[in-house]
Design goal:
With about 140 residues, the protein is of the alpha+beta class. It contains 2 helices and 6 strands. The longest helix is centred in the C-terminal third of the chain and has 13 residues.
Length: about 140
C-alpha cells in the first residue's frame, strides 16, 4: 500500500522483538482466567487478575523468570525451589535467572504452581497512574 501523501516522511517502524521465553507461559494459555500483558519490555502473566509471573530475556537481572510474591512468602518458596533468589532490584519478588542449570525444569515447576493457584504466588497489580491534567488550561493560559 502506498503512502497517500507522497511528500510525508516515511513512518518509522520499530522491529518488534519477540521475547524468547514466551514458551514458559504457554501452559497458562489454556486457563480461562489467564491474561498476558507487556510490562517494561517483559511479558507478565496474570491469573484471576493477580500478577503471578514475569518472563524477560534482556540483560541481567532481567533475564529469566520473576515470581511475583511478597517478602513474607519468599522463604517458603525458596525452601521448595532453592534455585530462586530474591530479585536484585525488585527485592519483594523472586528471580530464576536464565543461566541457572535447572532453568527449564524450575520454570515448568513455577508454571505448574501458578496453575494450581499456589497461595505463595500472586500480587495485586498497582493501578495505572492516571495522566495529570496540564497545569495550564485554555481558560487561564494566557
Amino acid at each position: 500500500m502506498r503512502n497517500p501523501d507522497p511528500f510525508a516522511p516515511p513512518k518509522k517502524q520499530r522491529p518488534v522483538r519477540q521475547n524468547s521465553l514466551l514458551w514458559i507461559l504457554e501452559p497458562l494459555e489454556r486457563d480461562a482466567e489467564y491474561t498476558r500483558r507487556k510490562m517494561f519490555g517483559c511479558d507478565a502473566a496474570y491469573l484471576d487478575g493477580l500478577l503471578y509471573l514475569v518472563v524477560a530475556d534482556r540483560e541481567a537481572p532481567w533475564n529469566g523468570v520473576m515470581v511475583c510474591t511478597s517478602h513474607e512468602r519468599q522463604a517458603a518458596l525458596i525452601a521448595d525451589l532453592p534455585n530462586l533468589v530474591p530479585h536484585p532490584e525488585l527485592g519483594k519478588w523472586l528471580y530464576l535467572p536464565q543461566d541457572d542449570e535447572a532453568f527449564e525444569g524450575t520454570a515448568a515447576q513455577l508454571v505448574a504452581l501458578a496453575l494450581a493457584r499456589d497461595p505463595r504466588f500472586g500480587v495485586v497489580p498497582k493501578p495505572k497512574a492516571r495522566r495529570r491534567k496540564p497545569w495550564r488550561t485554555g481558560d487561564d493560559a494566557g
